[in-house]
Amino acid sequence: MMSSLIVGIGDCKVSKQADDVLVTHALGSCIAVIIHDPVAKVAGLLHYMLPESSLDAEKAGQRPFMFADTGIPMLFKSAYQLGALKSRMIVMAAGGAQMLDPNGTFNIGQRNHTAMRKIFWKAGVIVHKEEIGGTSSRTVRIDVASGRVQLRTSGEPEHDMTANTKRKVAGDGL
Amino acid sequence: MKASDFVRLVPDCCSEVLDAMYFTTVNGEIPLDWVDPEAPVPTEPPVSIAYSLHFAGDVTGHFGLSIEQKSAQSLAANFLGEESDDISSKEVHEVLGELANMFCGSVMSKVEGENKFVLSHPEEIHVTPSASEGDILISKLDTDSGVITVWVAVEGNPC
Amino acid sequence: MAFNILIVDDSPAMRRVVRRVMDISGVDVGKYMEAGNGLEALVVLRSDWVDLIMTDINMPEMDGEELLIAVRADPMLAEIPVLVVSTDQSDARAKQMISLGANGYVTKPFMPATLSVEMNRLLGVEGVSDEGF
């Protein structure tokens, strides 16, 4: 029986239960990083809010998934603990919309995206598919068994944003 | 075409390049004579590195950039995907040369449209141009990796 | 199957970035060769087997356009796939290079995934696609 695991804002979940679906809502300027190992059938979903933990070191210690630079490595490490391998990982991302944030600035979404790309470049990870930007909120979910990813942007029908890979990707780092 | 016609193109194109491959956000332009009031007074003048290249198409001239050593180190680390401490001076210079090349190429692509343009190999320079030298636009960009000064000097136009 | 890759660009930093993209794409590379301009590239091409040429356009001595023309004119080299990686973002330039025989055209600045997809395509390697199930 399908089990929906909700990933909240500043949260992260990994699973290798075949009937699990990881889902996160209200992706405005936040970014969801979605990973899937199609061999180990492990999936992970991180919903982070801010680019850098140095902005609030104390909060980063308590809530590491709030930030790209602490959350993304932990997402991958959690997946490795369930048997995922970096060389097989399919990586997708969604969110980073341009929205008015509490500080009154517009570009947190873009900064979140830049931070994510920098982390992945340094770690030697290719992002296979992403839907970033715009001005609307998004919801994204991944089926753990199949790795199928569905995305809904506010005001539009849901669509499949899965990246398909038939080849292993090598690398080290994360 | 005059240098002043580049006034929007330069920050927009530089922003695109810096975000895409140097993972650095441009926060805006600052006045040429601006000094950070909160920065400690340096005991020695900061070391800057500058690169310039020649462009030729329907518009011809020189393009250049100047950046402090520490900021250059950070940009180079981002570009190469390495830690800042692991980047050598040679690597910093190579990365800055490519940055000047990409800045200029991006600007020229927008200016020349479907016309061909040729860029020279970027070279380090030790004297940067001033605002009074010919038809020139100088922009100072405030970025997450520090201040980058960029200039476009157009040839063939009277001062 | 290990591929021999030739990267042609007068920027050592860009050659390093292109090489890094190839490494993290998981391509099985037998040998990387580098050249700073078209003339150096031809020396490499006439002495070593190459499976893919990735070349800039604006380079001293011999530019990417001249290199492409020379490669396509040489029966020993004519079949080698050529991917152009250039700061020139105009459609006209891309079309011109394709008409001269380039097999792909990526503009700088680029996202690693964009270059990775093109590399894999020209090497005929099954890679990541953005098509769903």
Q: Any overview of this molecule?
A:
The complex is a heterotrimer of chains A (174), B (159) and C (133). Chain A is 21% helix and 33% strand. Chain A is α+β, with helices and mostly antiparallel strands and 174 residues long. Chain A has a single domain, classed as 60s Ribosomal Protein L30, Chain: A (2-Layer Sandwich). In chain A, the strands form 2 sheets. Chain A has a 5-stranded mixed β-sheet with strand order 1-3-8-9-10, with no helix packed on it. Chain A has a 5-stranded mixed β-sheet with strand order 2-5-4-6-7. Chain A starts with a strand and ends in a 9-residue tail after the last strand. Chain B is built from 3 helices and 7 strands, in the order αβββααββββ. Chain B is globular. In chain B, strand 2 and strand 3 (60-68) form a beta hairpin. In chain B, strands 1, 2, 3, 4, 5, 6 and 7 form a 7-stranded antiparallel β-sheet that branches. Chain B has one domain: Chemotaxis protein chec (3-Layer(aba) Sandwich), CATH 3.40.1550.10. Chain B is α+β, with helices and mostly antiparallel strands and 159 residues long. Chain C is of the alpha/beta class and 133 residues long. A 5-stranded parallel β-sheet of chain C has the order 2-1-3-4-5, sandwiched between helices. The relative contact order of chain C is 0.17. The model of chain C is unreliable at 129-133 (pLDDT under 50). Chains in contact: A-B, A-C, B-C. Chain B binds chain C through residues 16-17, 20-21, 76, 79-81, 91, 94-95, 97-98, 101-102, 104-106, 108-110, 112-121, and chain C through 10-14, 16-17, 20, 58-60, 86-93, 107-111. Strand 11 of chain A pairs antiparallel with strand 6 (128-129) of chain C.
Task: Write out key terms for the chains shown.
heterotrimer, A: 174 residues, 60s Ribosomal Protein L30, Chain: A, 21% helix, globular, disordered C terminus, B: 159 residues, alpha+beta, Chemotaxis protein chec, 3 helices, 7 strands
CATH architecture of chain B: 3-Layer(aba) Sandwich
**Gap between N and C termini of chain C:** 27 Å
The ordered string of helix (H) and strand (E) elements of chain B is HEEEHHEEEE
Query: If interface size is counted as residues with C-beta under 8 Å from the partner's C-beta, which chains form the largest one?
Result: B-C, 31 and 24 residues
Range of strand content of chain C: 15-25%
* Main sheet makeup of chain B: 7 strands, antiparallel
What oligomeric assembly is this protein in?
heterotrimer
**β-strand number of chain C:** 6
- How many strands, which pairing sense, and closed or not: the largest β-sheet of chain C? 5 strands, parallel
CATH superfamily of chain C: Response regulator
The CATH C-level name of chain C is Alpha Beta
Q: What would you call the structural class of chain B?
A: alpha+beta
Q: How many domain modules of chain B?
A: 1
Helicity range of the residues of chain B? 25-40%
